[in-house]
Amino acid sequence: MGRQIVVPFGPQHPVLPEPIHLDLVLEDEVVVEAVPSIGYIHRGLEKLVEKREYTDYIRIAERICGICSFTHSVNYAESVEKVMGLEVPARAHYIRTILMEYSRMHSHMLWLGLTADAMGFENLFMNSWRIREAILDDMEMATGGRVIQGLCTVGGIRKDVPDEMLGQMSDHLKEITPQMEELCKIFSHDTSVRHRMRGLGVLTKEEMWELGGVGPTARGSNLPLDARCTGYSAYDELGFKPVVEKEGDCLARCIVRARELMAAADLVHAAVKKMPDGPVDVGKIKGGPDGEAFFFTEQPRGEVLHYVKGNGSKYLVRHRVRTPTFANIPPLVKMLAGVDLADVPVVVLTIDPCIGCMER
Amino acid sequence: MKDQNTTMRGIAVSDLVKETGAFKAKGCRLVQIGCTGIGDAYEINYTFDKDYVFETVRITVHDGDVIPSIAEHYWASFIYENEIHDLYGLTVEGMSIDFGGHLFHTAIENPFKNPPEVTKVEKETPAPGPEEGDA
Amino acid sequence: MANITKSPWIIHYDGSSCNGCDIEVLACLTPLYDIERFGIINTGNPKHADIFLITGGINYQNVDIVKNTYEQMVDPKVVVAVGICATSGGVFRECYNIMGGVNEVIPVDVYVPGCAVRPEAIIDGVVQALGILEEKRAQLEKEQGGAKK
Questions:
Q1: What is the rounded CA–CA span in Å between residue A326 and residue A306?
Q2: Can you tell me the ipTM of this complex?
Protein backbone atom coordinates (compact mmCIF):
# COMPACT_ATOMS: atom_id res chain seq x y z
CA MET A 1 0.00 0.00 0.00
CA GLY A 2 1.38 3.34 -1.05
CA ARG A 3 1.63 6.46 1.01
CA GLN A 4 -1.40 8.74 0.96
CA ILE A 5 -1.09 12.33 -0.16
CA VAL A 6 -3.67 15.07 -0.62
CA VAL A 7 -3.70 16.95 -3.92
CA PRO A 8 -5.86 20.05 -4.23
CA PHE A 9 -7.80 20.31 -7.51
CA GLY A 10 -9.03 23.80 -8.46
CA PRO A 11 -10.43 26.38 -8.00
CA GLN A 12 -8.49 27.98 -10.87
CA HIS A 13 -7.99 24.97 -13.11
CA PRO A 14 -7.41 24.93 -16.87
CA VAL A 15 -10.25 22.51 -17.68
CA LEU A 16 -12.80 24.14 -15.46
CA PRO A 17 -14.49 27.29 -16.69
CA GLU A 18 -15.86 27.67 -13.19
CA PRO A 19 -14.20 27.33 -9.82
CA ILE A 20 -14.81 24.21 -7.77
CA HIS A 21 -12.36 22.86 -5.26
CA LEU A 22 -11.74 19.19 -4.54
CA ASP A 23 -9.28 17.73 -2.09
CA LEU A 24 -8.16 14.47 -3.66
CA VAL A 25 -6.68 11.88 -1.34
CA LEU A 26 -4.30 9.86 -3.51
CA GLU A 27 -2.54 6.58 -3.07
CA ASP A 28 0.16 6.66 -5.73
CA GLU A 29 -1.82 7.78 -8.79
CA VAL A 30 -5.22 6.52 -7.68
CA VAL A 31 -7.88 8.59 -5.96
CA VAL A 32 -8.99 7.07 -2.69
CA GLU A 33 -11.32 9.79 -1.59
CA ALA A 34 -12.51 13.15 -2.89
CA VAL A 35 -13.77 15.89 -0.60
CA PRO A 36 -15.50 18.78 -2.35
CA SER A 37 -15.59 22.29 -0.95
CA ILE A 38 -17.63 24.98 -2.58
CA GLY A 39 -18.50 28.61 -2.08
CA TYR A 40 -16.35 30.40 -4.66
CA ILE A 41 -19.43 31.61 -6.51
CA HIS A 42 -21.81 31.74 -3.60
CA ARG A 43 -23.74 34.98 -3.91
CA GLY A 44 -26.62 34.34 -1.55
CA LEU A 45 -29.25 35.30 -4.07
CA GLU A 46 -32.01 33.36 -2.32
CA LYS A 47 -31.85 36.09 0.29
CA LEU A 48 -32.73 38.72 -2.34
CA VAL A 49 -36.42 37.70 -2.20
CA GLU A 50 -36.63 40.02 0.75
CA LYS A 51 -35.58 42.98 -1.39
CA ARG A 52 -37.28 42.32 -4.74
CA GLU A 53 -40.96 41.98 -5.48
CA TYR A 54 -41.93 38.49 -6.52
CA THR A 55 -42.65 39.59 -10.10
CA ASP A 56 -39.23 41.25 -10.44
CA TYR A 57 -37.43 38.44 -8.73
CA ILE A 58 -37.83 36.26 -11.80
CA ARG A 59 -34.95 38.25 -13.34
CA ILE A 60 -32.76 37.13 -10.44
CA ALA A 61 -34.07 33.56 -10.68
CA GLU A 62 -33.09 33.51 -14.33
CA ARG A 63 -29.57 34.55 -13.40
CA ILE A 64 -29.01 31.69 -10.98
CA CYS A 65 -27.18 30.23 -13.91
CA GLY A 66 -26.44 31.58 -17.36
CA ILE A 67 -26.65 28.20 -19.10
CA CYS A 68 -29.87 26.80 -17.68
CA SER A 69 -31.27 30.32 -17.34
CA PHE A 70 -34.53 29.79 -19.17
CA THR A 71 -35.51 26.66 -17.23
CA HIS A 72 -34.83 28.43 -13.95
CA SER A 73 -37.13 31.29 -14.90
CA VAL A 74 -39.87 28.86 -15.99
CA ASN A 75 -39.52 26.86 -12.81
CA TYR A 76 -39.76 29.95 -10.63
CA ALA A 77 -42.75 31.24 -12.58
CA GLU A 78 -44.51 27.87 -12.40
CA SER A 79 -44.01 27.58 -8.67
CA VAL A 80 -45.40 31.07 -8.03
CA GLU A 81 -48.28 30.35 -10.42
CA LYS A 82 -48.98 27.15 -8.50
CA VAL A 83 -49.19 29.06 -5.22
CA MET A 84 -51.44 31.74 -6.71
CA GLY A 85 -53.57 29.31 -8.71
CA LEU A 86 -52.96 31.11 -12.01
CA GLU A 87 -54.07 29.28 -15.16
CA VAL A 88 -51.43 30.08 -17.75
CA PRO A 89 -52.67 29.91 -21.38
CA ALA A 90 -51.62 26.85 -23.37
CA ARG A 91 -49.70 28.86 -25.95
CA ALA A 92 -47.40 30.25 -23.26
CA HIS A 93 -46.74 26.71 -22.03
CA TYR A 94 -45.87 25.57 -25.54
CA ILE A 95 -43.50 28.45 -26.19
CA ARG A 96 -41.84 27.89 -22.83
CA THR A 97 -41.42 24.22 -23.71
CA ILE A 98 -39.85 25.02 -27.07
CA LEU A 99 -37.34 27.37 -25.50
CA MET A 100 -36.56 24.93 -22.70
CA GLU A 101 -35.67 22.35 -25.33
CA TYR A 102 -33.58 24.92 -27.20
CA SER A 103 -31.66 25.68 -24.03
CA ARG A 104 -31.15 21.95 -23.55
CA MET A 105 -29.62 21.68 -27.00
CA HIS A 106 -27.32 24.65 -26.49
CA SER A 107 -26.29 23.43 -23.06
CA HIS A 108 -25.57 19.88 -24.21
CA MET A 109 -23.51 21.09 -27.15
CA LEU A 110 -21.61 23.40 -24.86
CA TRP A 111 -20.96 20.49 -22.54
CA LEU A 112 -19.94 18.09 -25.31
CA GLY A 113 -17.48 20.72 -26.48
CA LEU A 114 -16.01 21.27 -23.04
CA THR A 115 -15.65 17.54 -22.53
CA ALA A 116 -13.87 17.19 -25.84
CA ASP A 117 -11.58 20.01 -24.75
CA ALA A 118 -10.89 18.27 -21.43
CA MET A 119 -9.89 15.16 -23.38
CA GLY A 120 -7.58 17.24 -25.55
CA PHE A 121 -9.82 16.90 -28.61
CA GLU A 122 -9.70 20.55 -29.66
CA ASN A 123 -11.25 20.06 -33.09
CA LEU A 124 -14.37 18.47 -31.65
CA PHE A 125 -14.67 21.29 -29.13
CA MET A 126 -14.64 23.87 -31.92
CA ASN A 127 -17.11 21.87 -33.97
CA SER A 128 -19.64 21.48 -31.14
CA TRP A 129 -19.51 25.17 -30.43
CA ARG A 130 -19.86 26.03 -34.09
CA ILE A 131 -23.13 24.08 -34.32
CA ARG A 132 -24.25 25.58 -31.03
CA GLU A 133 -24.08 29.07 -32.52
CA ALA A 134 -26.90 28.14 -34.91
CA ILE A 135 -29.10 27.26 -31.93
CA LEU A 136 -28.19 30.52 -30.21
CA ASP A 137 -29.11 32.45 -33.36
CA ASP A 138 -32.61 31.00 -33.23
CA MET A 139 -32.96 31.72 -29.53
CA GLU A 140 -31.83 35.27 -30.14
CA MET A 141 -34.33 35.65 -32.97
CA ALA A 142 -37.19 34.46 -30.77
CA THR A 143 -36.35 36.26 -27.54
CA GLY A 144 -33.65 38.85 -28.14
CA GLY A 145 -31.13 37.20 -25.84
CA ARG A 146 -28.39 34.70 -26.53
CA VAL A 147 -27.89 33.17 -23.12
CA ILE A 148 -30.20 35.15 -20.84
CA GLN A 149 -33.59 35.36 -22.50
CA GLY A 150 -35.77 37.34 -20.10
CA LEU A 151 -38.84 36.00 -21.89
CA CYS A 152 -40.63 34.24 -19.08
CA THR A 153 -42.70 36.21 -16.58
CA VAL A 154 -44.99 35.19 -13.76
CA GLY A 155 -48.30 34.43 -15.50
CA GLY A 156 -47.01 33.68 -18.99
CA ILE A 157 -44.41 35.06 -21.32
CA ARG A 158 -43.47 38.65 -22.01
CA LYS A 159 -43.93 38.63 -25.76
CA ASP A 160 -45.51 36.22 -28.19
CA VAL A 161 -43.35 34.40 -30.71
CA PRO A 162 -45.29 34.51 -34.02
CA ASP A 163 -46.15 31.29 -35.83
CA GLU A 164 -44.06 32.17 -38.90
CA MET A 165 -41.01 32.57 -36.71
CA LEU A 166 -41.67 29.26 -35.00
CA GLY A 167 -41.90 27.60 -38.41
CA GLN A 168 -38.65 29.23 -39.42
CA MET A 169 -36.98 27.96 -36.25
CA SER A 170 -38.27 24.45 -36.89
CA ASP A 171 -36.97 24.52 -40.47
CA HIS A 172 -33.59 25.80 -39.38
CA LEU A 173 -33.40 23.04 -36.79
CA LYS A 174 -34.06 20.47 -39.50
CA GLU A 175 -31.13 21.89 -41.43
CA ILE A 176 -28.69 21.51 -38.58
CA THR A 177 -29.98 18.12 -37.36
CA PRO A 178 -27.61 16.18 -39.67
CA GLN A 179 -24.72 18.06 -38.09
CA MET A 180 -25.96 17.14 -34.63
CA GLU A 181 -26.30 13.52 -35.71
CA GLU A 182 -22.74 13.52 -36.93
CA LEU A 183 -21.60 15.00 -33.63
CA CYS A 184 -23.47 12.26 -31.79
CA LYS A 185 -21.82 9.64 -33.97
CA ILE A 186 -18.35 10.96 -33.23
CA PHE A 187 -18.98 10.76 -29.51
CA SER A 188 -20.32 7.24 -29.67
CA HIS A 189 -17.91 5.79 -32.25
CA ASP A 190 -14.60 7.62 -32.08
CA THR A 191 -11.74 5.52 -30.72
CA SER A 192 -10.07 8.26 -28.73
CA VAL A 193 -13.33 9.26 -27.04
CA ARG A 194 -14.09 5.64 -26.16
CA HIS A 195 -10.57 5.16 -24.93
CA ARG A 196 -10.83 8.07 -22.52
CA MET A 197 -14.34 7.33 -21.22
CA ARG A 198 -15.27 3.66 -21.47
CA GLY A 199 -15.48 1.96 -18.08
CA LEU A 200 -14.54 5.11 -16.20
CA GLY A 201 -16.42 6.23 -13.09
CA VAL A 202 -19.04 3.48 -13.19
CA LEU A 203 -22.13 3.65 -10.99
CA THR A 204 -24.89 1.07 -11.19
CA LYS A 205 -28.59 1.86 -11.41
CA GLU A 206 -29.11 0.93 -7.76
CA GLU A 207 -26.18 3.01 -6.53
CA MET A 208 -27.39 5.98 -8.52
CA TRP A 209 -30.90 5.77 -7.08
CA GLU A 210 -29.48 5.39 -3.59
CA LEU A 211 -27.22 8.44 -4.00
CA GLY A 212 -29.96 10.63 -5.40
CA GLY A 213 -28.31 11.35 -8.75
CA VAL A 214 -30.46 13.16 -11.32
CA GLY A 215 -30.51 14.11 -14.99
CA PRO A 216 -28.25 12.66 -17.70
CA THR A 217 -25.91 11.52 -14.93
CA ALA A 218 -28.64 9.19 -13.64
CA ARG A 219 -29.93 8.29 -17.10
CA GLY A 220 -26.45 7.15 -18.08
CA SER A 221 -26.84 4.47 -15.40
CA ASN A 222 -30.05 3.11 -16.96
CA LEU A 223 -32.24 5.03 -14.53
CA PRO A 224 -35.15 6.57 -16.46
CA LEU A 225 -35.46 9.51 -14.11
CA ASP A 226 -36.67 12.64 -15.85
CA ALA A 227 -38.88 15.35 -14.38
CA ARG A 228 -40.39 15.90 -17.82
CA CYS A 229 -42.30 12.65 -17.20
CA THR A 230 -44.46 14.57 -14.71
CA GLY A 231 -45.93 16.39 -17.70
CA TYR A 232 -45.39 20.01 -16.68
CA SER A 233 -45.76 22.78 -19.30
CA ALA A 234 -46.58 21.00 -22.58
CA TYR A 235 -44.60 17.81 -22.08
CA ASP A 236 -47.67 15.67 -21.34
CA GLU A 237 -48.97 16.32 -24.87
CA LEU A 238 -45.76 15.81 -26.82
CA GLY A 239 -45.17 12.10 -26.31
CA PHE A 240 -42.02 12.41 -24.27
CA LYS A 241 -39.76 9.46 -23.44
CA PRO A 242 -36.53 9.67 -21.43
CA VAL A 243 -33.25 8.72 -23.11
CA VAL A 244 -31.28 6.12 -21.16
CA GLU A 245 -28.01 4.25 -21.57
CA LYS A 246 -27.09 1.06 -19.75
CA GLU A 247 -23.38 1.13 -18.94
CA GLY A 248 -23.25 3.77 -16.19
CA ASP A 249 -19.77 4.97 -17.16
CA CYS A 250 -18.55 8.33 -18.45
CA LEU A 251 -19.19 7.37 -22.06
CA ALA A 252 -22.80 6.42 -21.31
CA ARG A 253 -23.43 9.79 -19.68
CA CYS A 254 -21.87 11.44 -22.69
CA ILE A 255 -23.97 9.50 -25.21
CA VAL A 256 -27.16 10.27 -23.27
CA ARG A 257 -26.49 13.95 -23.78
CA ALA A 258 -25.61 13.51 -27.42
CA ARG A 259 -28.79 11.53 -28.09
CA GLU A 260 -30.86 14.08 -26.18
CA LEU A 261 -29.94 16.64 -28.81
CA MET A 262 -32.08 14.78 -31.33
CA ALA A 263 -34.80 14.06 -28.78
CA ALA A 264 -34.97 17.77 -28.00
CA ALA A 265 -35.22 18.64 -31.69
CA ASP A 266 -38.11 16.17 -32.04
CA LEU A 267 -39.90 17.78 -29.12
CA VAL A 268 -39.49 21.20 -30.72
CA HIS A 269 -40.98 19.98 -34.00
CA ALA A 270 -43.87 18.30 -32.16
CA ALA A 271 -44.57 21.47 -30.17
CA VAL A 272 -44.48 23.70 -33.26
CA LYS A 273 -46.94 21.38 -35.01
CA LYS A 274 -49.38 21.37 -32.10
CA MET A 275 -48.98 25.06 -31.24
CA PRO A 276 -52.33 26.37 -29.96
CA ASP A 277 -53.54 29.91 -30.64
CA GLY A 278 -54.55 32.40 -28.02
CA PRO A 279 -53.11 34.80 -25.48
CA VAL A 280 -49.69 34.27 -23.92
CA ASP A 281 -50.24 35.64 -20.43
CA VAL A 282 -52.94 35.92 -17.79
CA GLY A 283 -53.01 39.73 -17.81
CA LYS A 284 -52.60 41.83 -14.73
CA ILE A 285 -51.97 39.85 -11.57
CA LYS A 286 -53.46 41.09 -8.32
CA GLY A 287 -52.11 40.43 -4.85
CA GLY A 288 -49.16 38.41 -3.74
CA PRO A 289 -48.56 34.69 -3.36
CA ASP A 290 -49.93 33.27 -0.12
CA GLY A 291 -48.86 29.74 0.65
CA GLU A 292 -46.11 27.44 -0.46
CA ALA A 293 -45.31 25.13 -3.35
CA PHE A 294 -42.68 22.82 -4.71
CA PHE A 295 -42.14 22.64 -8.43
CA PHE A 296 -39.86 20.34 -10.39
CA THR A 297 -38.52 20.78 -13.89
CA GLU A 298 -35.88 19.03 -15.93
CA GLN A 299 -32.93 21.27 -16.66
CA PRO A 300 -30.22 20.26 -19.11
CA ARG A 301 -28.32 19.03 -16.06
CA GLY A 302 -31.16 17.24 -14.35
CA GLU A 303 -34.08 17.69 -12.08
CA VAL A 304 -34.28 21.06 -10.38
CA LEU A 305 -36.59 21.99 -7.59
CA HIS A 306 -37.83 25.42 -6.59
CA TYR A 307 -39.64 25.95 -3.34
CA VAL A 308 -41.45 29.23 -2.74
CA LYS A 309 -43.26 30.38 0.33
CA GLY A 310 -45.21 33.61 0.50
CA ASN A 311 -47.35 35.38 3.06
CA GLY A 312 -49.65 37.34 0.75
CA SER A 313 -47.35 40.35 0.46
CA LYS A 314 -45.32 41.38 -2.58
CA TYR A 315 -42.21 39.84 -1.09
CA LEU A 316 -41.69 36.13 -0.77
CA VAL A 317 -40.64 34.69 2.57
CA ARG A 318 -38.42 32.02 1.09
CA HIS A 319 -37.19 30.83 -2.26
CA ARG A 320 -35.14 27.69 -2.19
CA VAL A 321 -33.48 26.08 -5.16
CA ARG A 322 -32.10 22.57 -5.18
CA THR A 323 -30.09 22.38 -8.35
CA PRO A 324 -29.09 19.20 -10.18
CA THR A 325 -25.38 19.73 -9.60
CA PHE A 326 -25.99 19.84 -5.86
CA ALA A 327 -27.79 16.51 -6.01
CA ASN A 328 -25.05 15.07 -8.21
CA ILE A 329 -22.24 15.81 -5.77
CA PRO A 330 -22.69 12.60 -3.71
CA PRO A 331 -22.58 10.43 -6.89
CA LEU A 332 -19.49 12.37 -8.01
CA VAL A 333 -17.73 11.66 -4.73
CA LYS A 334 -18.43 7.93 -5.20
CA MET A 335 -17.43 7.99 -8.89
CA LEU A 336 -14.07 9.56 -8.17
CA ALA A 337 -12.97 6.85 -5.76
CA GLY A 338 -10.70 4.49 -7.67
CA VAL A 339 -9.98 6.57 -10.80
CA ASP A 340 -6.54 7.76 -11.87
CA LEU A 341 -5.54 11.33 -11.15
CA ALA A 342 -5.24 12.01 -14.88
CA ASP A 343 -8.88 11.02 -15.41
CA VAL A 344 -10.27 13.25 -12.68
CA PRO A 345 -11.10 16.19 -15.00
CA VAL A 346 -13.10 13.96 -17.33
CA VAL A 347 -15.04 12.34 -14.48
CA VAL A 348 -15.78 15.70 -12.88
CA LEU A 349 -17.05 17.02 -16.20
CA THR A 350 -19.36 14.09 -16.87
CA ILE A 351 -21.77 15.15 -14.14
CA ASP A 352 -21.93 18.44 -16.07
CA PRO A 353 -21.11 20.55 -13.05
CA CYS A 354 -22.75 23.94 -13.05
CA ILE A 355 -21.20 25.72 -10.14
CA GLY A 356 -23.14 28.93 -10.65
CA CYS A 357 -26.34 26.92 -10.13
CA MET A 358 -25.03 24.88 -7.31
CA GLU A 359 -23.85 27.69 -5.10
CA ARG A 360 -26.47 30.26 -5.98
CA MET B 1 -50.16 20.77 -18.43
CA LYS B 2 -50.45 18.16 -15.71
CA ASP B 3 -50.26 18.96 -12.03
CA GLN B 4 -47.34 17.53 -10.13
CA ASN B 5 -48.16 15.20 -7.31
CA THR B 6 -46.68 16.78 -4.19
CA THR B 7 -47.81 16.17 -0.65
CA MET B 8 -46.71 17.65 2.65
CA ARG B 9 -47.21 16.69 6.26
CA GLY B 10 -45.67 17.70 9.57
CA ILE B 11 -43.98 15.19 11.86
CA ALA B 12 -42.20 15.34 15.23
CA VAL B 13 -38.42 15.62 15.30
CA SER B 14 -38.22 12.40 17.31
CA ASP B 15 -40.01 10.50 14.51
CA LEU B 16 -37.75 11.78 11.73
CA VAL B 17 -35.31 8.90 11.51
CA LYS B 18 -38.10 6.32 11.80
CA GLU B 19 -40.16 8.03 9.06
CA THR B 20 -37.11 8.26 6.83
CA GLY B 21 -36.53 4.55 7.33
CA ALA B 22 -40.09 3.92 6.17
CA PHE B 23 -39.45 5.92 2.97
CA LYS B 24 -36.26 3.99 2.42
CA ALA B 25 -38.09 0.68 2.88
CA LYS B 26 -40.67 1.83 0.31
CA GLY B 27 -37.84 2.35 -2.19
CA CYS B 28 -37.95 6.13 -2.34
CA ARG B 29 -35.00 8.33 -3.23
CA LEU B 30 -34.01 11.43 -1.30
CA VAL B 31 -34.85 14.48 -3.41
CA GLN B 32 -33.82 17.27 -1.10
CA ILE B 33 -33.64 18.69 2.38
CA GLY B 34 -34.48 22.37 2.63
CA CYS B 35 -34.79 24.80 5.47
CA THR B 36 -36.97 27.88 5.90
CA GLY B 37 -36.76 30.45 8.66
CA ILE B 38 -40.17 31.41 10.06
CA GLY B 39 -39.89 34.08 12.73
CA ASP B 40 -38.36 32.35 15.72
CA ALA B 41 -38.34 28.79 14.35
CA TYR B 42 -37.18 26.83 11.33
CA GLU B 43 -39.08 24.43 9.12
CA ILE B 44 -37.01 21.67 7.59
CA ASN B 45 -38.55 19.86 4.63
CA TYR B 46 -37.41 16.38 3.64
CA THR B 47 -38.63 15.44 0.17
CA PHE B 48 -38.71 11.85 -1.11
CA ASP B 49 -39.84 10.53 -4.44
CA LYS B 50 -40.96 7.32 -6.02
CA ASP B 51 -42.67 7.20 -9.41
CA TYR B 52 -42.91 11.00 -9.45
CA VAL B 53 -44.97 11.19 -6.27
CA PHE B 54 -43.07 13.77 -4.27
CA GLU B 55 -43.73 13.34 -0.57
CA THR B 56 -42.46 15.91 1.88
CA VAL B 57 -42.26 15.58 5.63
CA ARG B 58 -41.64 18.63 7.74
CA ILE B 59 -40.10 19.08 11.15
CA THR B 60 -40.06 22.34 13.07
CA VAL B 61 -37.01 23.19 15.15
CA HIS B 62 -35.60 26.13 17.08
CA ASP B 63 -32.16 27.67 17.51
CA GLY B 64 -30.00 25.41 19.61
CA ASP B 65 -31.93 22.22 18.85
CA VAL B 66 -29.96 19.20 17.72
CA ILE B 67 -31.35 17.62 14.56
CA PRO B 68 -30.72 13.92 13.98
CA SER B 69 -29.06 13.11 10.67
CA ILE B 70 -30.79 10.73 8.29
CA ALA B 71 -27.42 9.44 7.07
CA GLU B 72 -28.09 5.92 8.37
CA HIS B 73 -30.75 5.59 5.68
CA TYR B 74 -29.49 8.01 3.04
CA TRP B 75 -25.72 8.47 2.85
CA ALA B 76 -26.11 11.34 0.38
CA SER B 77 -27.93 13.49 2.94
CA PHE B 78 -24.59 14.95 4.05
CA ILE B 79 -24.58 17.62 1.36
CA TYR B 80 -27.96 19.04 2.44
CA GLU B 81 -27.28 18.69 6.15
CA ASN B 82 -23.96 20.51 5.88
CA GLU B 83 -25.69 23.23 3.89
CA ILE B 84 -28.27 23.68 6.66
CA HIS B 85 -25.51 23.76 9.22
CA ASP B 86 -23.52 26.39 7.32
CA LEU B 87 -26.34 28.67 6.25
CA TYR B 88 -28.64 28.42 9.26
CA GLY B 89 -26.29 27.63 12.11
CA LEU B 90 -28.28 24.57 13.16
CA THR B 91 -26.56 21.49 14.53
CA VAL B 92 -27.04 18.18 12.77
CA GLU B 93 -25.81 15.12 14.60
CA GLY B 94 -24.35 12.05 12.91
CA MET B 95 -23.69 13.26 9.36
CA SER B 96 -21.90 10.82 7.05
CA ILE B 97 -19.35 13.50 6.11
CA ASP B 98 -19.02 16.46 8.45
CA PHE B 99 -17.43 19.47 6.81
CA GLY B 100 -17.32 21.26 10.14
CA GLY B 101 -18.76 24.44 8.64
CA HIS B 102 -16.45 24.47 5.63
CA LEU B 103 -18.85 23.58 2.83
CA PHE B 104 -20.05 27.13 2.22
CA HIS B 105 -17.74 29.99 3.00
CA THR B 106 -19.83 33.09 3.53
CA ALA B 107 -19.04 36.66 4.44
CA ILE B 108 -21.37 36.61 7.42
CA GLU B 109 -21.71 33.52 9.49
CA ASN B 110 -25.02 31.68 9.05
CA PRO B 111 -26.63 34.30 6.77
CA PHE B 112 -30.06 32.68 6.86
CA LYS B 113 -30.24 32.45 10.65
CA ASN B 114 -33.34 34.03 12.16
CA PRO B 115 -32.45 37.46 13.49
CA PRO B 116 -32.55 37.66 17.28
CA GLU B 117 -35.44 39.89 18.28
CA VAL B 118 -33.64 42.29 20.60
CA THR B 119 -30.80 43.39 18.36
CA LYS B 120 -32.86 45.44 15.89
CA VAL B 121 -31.31 48.73 17.05
CA GLU B 122 -27.82 47.53 16.21
CA LYS B 123 -26.18 49.31 13.31
CA GLU B 124 -25.78 47.32 10.15
CA THR B 125 -22.22 46.13 9.60
CA PRO B 126 -22.68 43.08 7.41
CA ALA B 127 -19.08 42.40 6.52
CA PRO B 128 -15.49 43.61 6.90
CA GLY B 129 -14.13 46.00 4.26
CA PRO B 130 -12.11 44.71 1.33
CA GLU B 131 -8.77 45.90 2.73
CA GLU B 132 -9.22 44.05 6.00
CA GLY B 133 -9.96 40.72 4.33
CA ASP B 134 -7.31 38.38 5.71
CA ALA B 135 -4.81 36.87 3.32
CA MET C 1 -5.66 47.31 -35.58
CA ALA C 2 -2.83 47.92 -38.00
CA ASN C 3 -0.63 49.39 -35.29
CA ILE C 4 -0.87 46.31 -33.06
CA THR C 5 2.18 44.17 -33.37
CA LYS C 6 2.05 41.88 -30.36
CA SER C 7 -0.04 38.73 -29.83
CA PRO C 8 -1.48 39.17 -26.35
CA TRP C 9 -2.53 36.15 -24.32
CA ILE C 10 -5.52 36.25 -22.04
CA ILE C 11 -6.40 34.52 -18.80
CA HIS C 12 -9.98 34.17 -17.70
CA TYR C 13 -11.29 33.84 -14.16
CA ASP C 14 -14.90 33.43 -13.12
CA GLY C 15 -15.46 35.67 -10.11
CA SER C 16 -18.97 34.85 -9.02
CA SER C 17 -20.76 35.10 -12.29
CA CYS C 18 -23.82 33.11 -13.29
CA ASN C 19 -21.88 31.54 -16.19
CA GLY C 20 -23.65 33.61 -18.80
CA CYS C 21 -20.60 35.80 -19.40
CA ASP C 22 -18.17 32.89 -19.04
CA ILE C 23 -19.70 30.95 -21.85
CA GLU C 24 -19.68 34.07 -23.97
CA VAL C 25 -15.97 34.51 -23.28
CA LEU C 26 -15.47 30.92 -24.43
CA ALA C 27 -17.71 31.54 -27.43
CA CYS C 28 -15.25 34.26 -28.50
CA LEU C 29 -12.62 31.58 -28.97
CA THR C 30 -14.75 29.38 -31.19
CA PRO C 31 -15.12 29.50 -34.98
CA LEU C 32 -17.83 32.16 -35.32
CA TYR C 33 -16.01 34.92 -33.40
CA ASP C 34 -12.53 33.46 -33.32
CA ILE C 35 -10.39 35.98 -31.46
CA GLU C 36 -7.39 33.81 -32.21
CA ARG C 37 -7.25 35.60 -35.53
CA PHE C 38 -5.87 38.59 -33.59
CA GLY C 39 -3.20 36.32 -32.17
CA ILE C 40 -5.03 36.11 -28.87
CA ILE C 41 -4.73 32.82 -27.02
CA ASN C 42 -6.55 31.77 -23.88
CA THR C 43 -4.04 30.47 -21.37
CA GLY C 44 -4.46 28.95 -17.94
CA ASN C 45 -1.22 30.31 -16.59
CA PRO C 46 -1.20 33.86 -15.17
CA LYS C 47 2.54 34.22 -15.84
CA HIS C 48 1.92 33.80 -19.55
CA ALA C 49 -0.92 36.27 -19.73
CA ASP C 50 -1.11 39.93 -20.68
CA ILE C 51 -4.84 40.48 -20.36
CA PHE C 52 -6.91 39.41 -17.38
CA LEU C 53 -10.59 38.86 -18.15
CA ILE C 54 -12.81 38.65 -15.08
CA THR C 55 -16.49 37.83 -15.17
CA GLY C 56 -18.81 38.21 -12.22
CA GLY C 57 -18.62 40.23 -9.04
CA ILE C 58 -16.09 39.61 -6.32
CA ASN C 59 -17.19 37.69 -3.27
CA TYR C 60 -15.41 37.17 0.01
CA GLN C 61 -14.26 33.72 -1.00
CA ASN C 62 -12.39 34.59 -4.17
CA VAL C 63 -10.77 37.94 -3.26
CA ASP C 64 -7.42 36.32 -2.61
CA ILE C 65 -7.53 34.23 -5.76
CA VAL C 66 -8.21 37.27 -7.92
CA LYS C 67 -5.47 39.28 -6.18
CA ASN C 68 -3.03 36.39 -6.47
CA THR C 69 -3.69 35.84 -10.14
CA TYR C 70 -3.30 39.55 -10.82
CA GLU C 71 -0.03 39.79 -8.90
CA GLN C 72 1.41 36.80 -10.69
CA MET C 73 0.94 38.42 -14.07
CA VAL C 74 3.98 40.15 -15.49
CA ASP C 75 3.95 43.89 -16.29
CA PRO C 76 2.57 45.39 -18.45
CA LYS C 77 -0.87 43.94 -17.81
CA VAL C 78 -4.44 45.01 -18.45
CA VAL C 79 -7.60 44.05 -16.58
CA VAL C 80 -10.92 43.79 -18.39
CA ALA C 81 -14.10 43.53 -16.32
CA VAL C 82 -16.53 41.56 -18.46
CA GLY C 83 -20.23 41.97 -17.78
CA ILE C 84 -22.22 44.20 -15.48
CA CYS C 85 -21.50 42.07 -12.41
CA ALA C 86 -17.76 42.51 -12.85
CA THR C 87 -18.32 46.21 -13.46
CA SER C 88 -20.44 47.00 -10.41
CA GLY C 89 -21.93 43.86 -8.90
CA GLY C 90 -24.97 44.04 -11.16
CA VAL C 91 -28.20 42.45 -10.00
CA PHE C 92 -26.31 40.68 -7.23
CA ARG C 93 -24.93 43.90 -5.75
CA GLU C 94 -27.14 43.65 -2.70
CA CYS C 95 -26.35 40.01 -1.94
CA TYR C 96 -24.67 39.49 1.39
CA ASN C 97 -21.76 37.60 -0.07
CA ILE C 98 -20.89 40.06 -2.86
CA MET C 99 -18.33 42.83 -2.34
CA GLY C 100 -19.06 44.57 -5.62
CA GLY C 101 -17.24 44.98 -8.90
CA VAL C 102 -13.71 43.91 -9.69
CA ASN C 103 -12.38 47.42 -9.06
CA GLU C 104 -12.93 46.85 -5.33
CA VAL C 105 -9.89 44.58 -5.39
CA ILE C 106 -7.66 45.34 -8.36
CA PRO C 107 -7.40 48.26 -10.80
CA VAL C 108 -9.58 47.80 -13.88
CA ASP C 109 -8.70 49.29 -17.26
CA VAL C 110 -11.67 48.40 -19.43
CA TYR C 111 -15.30 47.89 -18.43
CA VAL C 112 -17.53 45.86 -20.72
CA PRO C 113 -21.19 46.17 -19.70
CA GLY C 114 -24.00 43.79 -20.61
CA CYS C 115 -26.05 41.03 -19.04
CA ALA C 116 -25.12 38.67 -20.46
CA VAL C 117 -22.42 40.48 -22.36
CA ARG C 118 -22.35 39.82 -26.09
CA PRO C 119 -19.26 38.31 -27.74
CA GLU C 120 -18.95 41.37 -30.00
CA ALA C 121 -18.71 43.56 -26.90
CA ILE C 122 -16.06 41.31 -25.39
CA ILE C 123 -13.98 41.49 -28.56
CA ASP C 124 -14.40 45.27 -28.58
CA GLY C 125 -13.25 45.40 -24.96
CA VAL C 126 -10.24 43.22 -25.65
CA VAL C 127 -9.26 45.35 -28.64
CA GLN C 128 -9.45 48.46 -26.45
CA ALA C 129 -7.33 46.64 -23.92
CA LEU C 130 -4.72 46.06 -26.61
CA GLY C 131 -4.37 49.81 -27.04
CA ILE C 132 -3.95 50.31 -23.30
CA LEU C 133 -1.45 47.47 -23.16
CA GLU C 134 0.60 49.17 -25.85
CA GLU C 135 0.55 52.48 -23.92
CA LYS C 136 1.56 50.74 -20.71
CA ARG C 137 4.39 49.00 -22.49
CA ALA C 138 5.69 52.28 -23.90
CA GLN C 139 5.41 53.87 -20.44
CA LEU C 140 7.28 50.97 -18.86
CA GLU C 141 10.06 51.16 -21.45
CA LYS C 142 10.43 54.88 -20.85
CA GLU C 143 10.66 54.38 -17.09
CA GLN C 144 13.13 51.56 -17.39
CA GLY C 145 15.16 53.45 -19.96
CA GLY C 146 15.26 56.43 -17.56
CA ALA C 147 16.43 54.24 -14.72
CA LYS C 148 19.28 52.83 -16.75
CA LYS C 149 20.68 56.21 -17.56
A1: 13
A2: 0.79
